[in-house]
Amino acid sequence: MKNIFIIIILTFCPLASLFAQDKYEIFRKEMFLIEKQENEYRKVIWGENDFSQDYKDSVYKKHQVLVKEKVEFAKNTIRENRDDERFLKVLDIYVRNFLSLDEFEAELKMFSFQVQKTEACQRYFEFIKYARINTPGKQCIDFEMKGHDGKTIKFSDVYKKHKLVLIDFWASWCGACRATMPSIKKMYEVYHEKGVEVVSVSLDDNKEAWEKAYKEENIPWIDGSNLLGWKDPVTLWYAIRGIPHKVLVDQHGIIIDSGFYQLGSLEQKIDEYLHSHKN
């Protein structure tokens, strides 16, 4: 009888071990497998290869299905773990880009009261608050930073003197930011004499790296930083999730538009504004 009891325990041990596993770790392992497959699809679709276009198109369809399945998997896992703070990160990484601000806020409010009180969740609520402010037609938030000469730069002092001002959030370590510098320079050469200024805000926290990049890029416009990195309050005030991030404001500090990820979209918006605001 004793031997039978031992056998029963050993039989159920793997099952007990499975239930004992951390739910977040189980999610990560399963998501890793999904993303591994997704990366294989991407290599076929966008990688350098000799696959036919028909084959790439068929893989692209599979990729789209997998993306939907990935999002649904994340959503279902979140629903089952509303009392675990770590699944806020799952919401942020895998679901947030498919939600409006209202939908994102609703998702956050479905977490337990204890999770909603956490610092991480409160930061998301703060982001939503400022994201709603940073829309075309709204007044931008004024801010201050230090220039390379150590003097304070107040943003409102700048936009009041120009028809339009482009805020360019960047950092020395951001390759994508620095890759956009040449296009901003071309815009600046054409539009600066028409009353358009540029104010770069560096999210560096290392003064030497910031100064070095500034000289290497040979930035001709206003550039400043508080050297606080992502801890700079301006990142919250302008609801910045990633850089480069650009915001166009008029001489009254009213937000005209933001983003400008497509080539030529910034110049088009500037032309539209200047044409409709001729003296």
Automatic annotation (TrEMBL):
Alphabetized CDD domains for the sequence: TlpA_like_family
Pfam families: AhpC-TSA
A Gene Ontology molecular function term of the record: antioxidant activity
Record-level GO BP terms: cytochrome complex assembly
Span of domain Thioredoxin: 134-275
InterPro entries membership: AhpC/TSA, Thioredoxin-like_sf, Thioredoxin_CS, Thioredoxin_domain, Thioredoxin_ResA/DsbE_sf
Keywords linked to the UniProt accession: Cytochrome c-type biogenesis, Disulfide bond, Redox-active center
Protein name: TlpA family protein disulfide reductase
Organism, as annotated: Butyricimonas virosa
Phylogenetic lineage: Bacteria, Pseudomonadati, Bacteroidota, Bacteroidia, Bacteroidales
